[in-house]
Amino acid sequence: GGGAYGAAKAGGAFDLVRFVQQPQVVARIVSAVFALIVFACLVGDGYMSRPENPQLYCIFNHNEDACRYGIGIGVLAFLACIFFFMVDVYFPQISNTTDRKYLVLADLGFSGLWTFLWFIGFCFLTNQWSWTRAEDVFIGADSARAAITFSFFSIFSWVSEAL
Question: Where would you find the membrane-spanning parts of this chain (predicted)?
Answer without folding.
Answer: 25-48, 69-91, 103-125, 137-159
